[in-house]
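pinned: reference chain
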Amino acid sequence: MLYHEDINPSWDDGRKSSAKRFIQSREEKLILDLAFPRAGERLLDVGCGTGEHLLFFRNQGCSVTGVEASFARIEAAKQRLGHRADIHAGRAEELPFSDNEFDIVTLIASLEFAEDPKKAISEAIRVSRNRVFMGTWNKYAIMNPRGAVKDISNSQSGESPVNLLGGLQLVHWIRNMLPSIPIEWGSVIFFPFDWYTYLAGIEQRMPIRKNPFGAFLGFSFPVRTSYRTIQDVIAVPRGVHSKTRQPLQGVAIGMKGEENHCRSSSS
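pinned: its structure tokens
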């Protein structure tokens, strides 16, 4: 559902404290380590909010597009980025884009607010041609992730998230959609925010990869298309004499797993 809302001006201002700037830098490190955005790639940020992550990826050299359900946030994102981003109104569960349109699709602190997070992940996979990155607040973190979402996530209204998610649940959903796909994952933010005045150095020394205890989880996985075009000989009809039996170019004969079956049935 698309909607109007009043943006809380203190949300972006809250990022200015030293502790919250440090937390933001930890989020960005996890995103860079797992999503690995490269200059020139087309990137879609789903639930882009006021455009903070769009600007971050733009500074990495990506061509950025955002989709957002809140008209107020869309206007704020346009004011932030101007002509440097293409921003659309839309829902995570019904992305207004074609299949395989983007190199990278990101969902950062947006699955918590999706009406159907599984459908949102499925849509992200559909419009990606290379990889998907998901960043979400950890339901089972040691520190209180609801406070994290309220303070520094996309929840400008200050309301509690609709649905916090756990890492095992997300991995289960991904595996059901893309069996045997490799998943890179990790987490950051291991202490309450107020502690980072003293514990920033300890946080930086803690391992990120495959660490399930941080408040902010990140997952990255490749996307592989289900169909491919291969060459095969088309059977010659009776009464027609062919001088050669060379295959015609670009004949799609089925899914990857059905290749051997198609070859045997055509012989």
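why pinned: The first helix runs from residue 10 to 14. The beta strands are 42-46, 63-68, 85-89, 102-108, 128-137, 184-188, 216-222, 230-232, 248-251.
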